[in-house]
Amino acid sequence: MPKYRDELDAVLRALADPTRRAVVERLAKSPAVVSELAAPFSMALPSLMQHLRVLENAGLITSQKHGRVRTMSLRPGALDVLHLWLGEQRTPAAHQADRLGIHMTCTTPKET
Q1: What's the rounded Cα separation, in Å, for the pair 52 and 110?
Q2: Which pLDDT score is estimated for 40?
Q3: Non-local CB neighbours of 61 within 8 Å, separated by 6+ positions
Q4: Which domain holds residue 31?
């Protein structure tokens, strides 16, 4: 098991929800205030705040409060743990596919 399992689990749980994925996609473009993030969703502001808390607790986003305005940002490197894990999963699969390709090339009858 990877040593970063808890962090990976938190990120995957947070990204399992389509609303939270949409928020991450939006914040990947630039930081945004909460009211701007809420605009595309037909939900009450407290519901969106709950989603933002899940993302923040997973380490995906950060928030800064200036007066009454809260600005949310995607944390730099927030998705690194996911990229690392996916890379680890792809490597064995890629090697298997390479071996299968070599096997198929070596065992395919040649046309005469």
Answers
A1: 60
A2: 93
A3: 23, 24, 27, 52, 55, 72, 73, 74, 75, 78
A4: 5-107
